Known about the structure:
Blueprint: H1 2-30, H2 40-64, H3 69-83, H4 85-89, H5 100-104, H6 107-123
Amino acid sequence: MFQRFVLFGVIISIISSVVGVSYTYCSYHFLFDFSKTLPIWKIVITYVFLGLLFSGLYFVVNEFFTTYLIVLNIAVVLISFLSIIWPIIVNIDEEFPEMFPSFAIPLHFIFPLFWLALFPHFNKRTHE
């Protein structure tokens, strides 16, 4: 049963990483290159960490606190909203530092978007 949760975390990590890397590559290529401040490997590592962390939390909540699954989803959304503070307040040494928030903020919503999109598919056994 734990394998289903790990699979969920891996799938979310892969999808988020592919979309995040595609967005980053296009942004670096067509708009502004912030690769010194936010390289692609940091984006992939962050999505893998988030995917495995939240799938582990999902397992714990599903096993012991089944009625609080909505709280986990709300936590994912609130953490993504609170995390956009970092791109707004960070000082970077790039050519156009004022453009960094417009580049980085969409990256903070890729993970919760796919988490909430795929959550009902992986959670349907709980409702049977």
